[in-house]
Specification:
The chain is built from twelve helices and ten strands. It is α/β, with parallel strands linked by helices. Strands 1, 2, 3, 4, 5, 6, 7, 8, 9 and 10 form a ten-stranded mixed beta sheet that branches. Strand 5, helix 7 and strand 6 form a beta-alpha-beta unit. Helix 3 packs across helix 10 and helix 5 runs parallel beside helix 12. 47% of the residues are buried.
């Protein structure tokens, strides 16, 4: 009788082990992660704050892991298109989503999303929080939020505001200011912050709500005029720019923005933890702090569990705000 060759015997034993203990291969893959290129889907267009942040983080991941980390911009539907791609991706840790609170905590309260923001994702980390800025072109006669509101009242239905996508915090900021100031302005959506900024610089829109991170270089160069921030208090990065809530009649005005990293649901928790730990290391580095904090972003790097709780709370918060203010933005 012929004896089995040793290599064949090893393969047979290995196959039997995988059948009997499938968790062994999963554990090995989690420990070895990553062993191939990673794709970070950004749900907004190139040039905006989300894209800028994703590319800086991707570089840190690549340096740490020795694997290419590719940023894949998939804008559209207020961030829903890119988010849906990741919701339906393999749960192997090689397709991640870097997005804002818009498609995760806000959009699902306004219209049915093609994914469940809680069930279809594994939160990795809330990366940064920052305000939006209400800005106008330097040629605008308005030099304060109050003056802009008076101009909008004098030109009822004539002025417009640009934002980076239906249902996002910037969009709702515009809808909320319409409601609170009792003005009639038209929302003009774009597929990300870069196009919004270009529209204002080109004089195609009257005002914008856009992240402080995206606007800061243009504000510093005085190519746009910042009138107010959407946080309850002034931003340390723009101490001379009032909070919109300081304007009489707009007390309590607030709209926030965060950047978060998510994986598809059922991604191995050990892989999620590994990505989170590397995210935390990157965001506490002097390199990224120097790059982003002077531009108004607070780097937070919360844990997966804390981020999951933030998502649940924000879904409830925005649902309440939308219903209370009776906000029904046009698509």
């Amino acid at each position: 009788m012929l004896k089995p060759q040793k290599p064949l015997l090893r393969h047979l034993l290995g196959a039997l082990l995988l059948i009997a203990c499938p968790g062994v291969s999963l554990a090995a893959s989690a420990l070895d992660y990553p062993t191939k290129p990673i794709r970070i889907v950004v749900s907004f267009s190139p040039g905006g704050g989300t894209d800028i942040f994703a590319r800086a983080l991707a570089q840190k991941y690549s340096q740490a892991w020795g694997q290419p980390v590719i940023v894949d911009n998939r804008p559209g539907a207020g961030g829903n298109i890119g988010s849906d791609i990741v919701a339906k991706a393999l749960s192997d840790g090689y397709t991640l989503l870097l997005t804002t609170n818009a498609p995760i905590a806000i959009n699902p309260n306004l219209a049915k999303a093609p994914y469940d923001p809680v069930k279809d994702f594994a939160p990795v980390s809330q990366l940064a929080v920052l305000p939006f800025v209400l800005s106008v072109h330097p040629s605008s006669p308005a030099k304060s939020v109050a003056e802009l509101m008076n101009l909008a009242k004098a030109k009822k239905g004539v002025l417009n505001f640009a934002h980076s996508g239906f249902g996002g915090g910037a969009h709702l900021a515009g809808e909320l200011i319409k409601k609170m100031a009792k003005i009639d302005i038209t929302a003009v959506p774009f597929k990300g912050g870069g196009p919004v900024l270009q529209a204002l610089l080109g004089g195609q829109v009257d005002m914008i709500f856009l992240s402080i991170l995206t606007q800061m270089p243009m504000i510093q160069q005085e190519r746009i005029r910042a009138l107010g921030v959407t946080s309850p208090e002034r931003s340390p990065a723009l101490p001379n720019v009032p909070a919109i809530a300081e304007t009489p009649g707009l007390e309590g005005f607030e709209s926030d923005l965060w950047y978060g990293l998510l994986a598809p649901a059922d991604t191995d928790p050990r892989i999620v933890e590994k990505i989170y730990q590397e995210s935390r290391r990157a965001l506490t580095s002097s390199e990224l702090k120097t790059a982003f904090e002077p531009r108004g972003a607070a780097l937070v790097a919360t844990s997966p569990g804390t981020f999951a709780e933030t998502i649940r709370k924000d879904l409830a918060k925005w649902d309440d705000l939308i219903k209370t203010a009776n906000i029904k933005p046009e698509k």
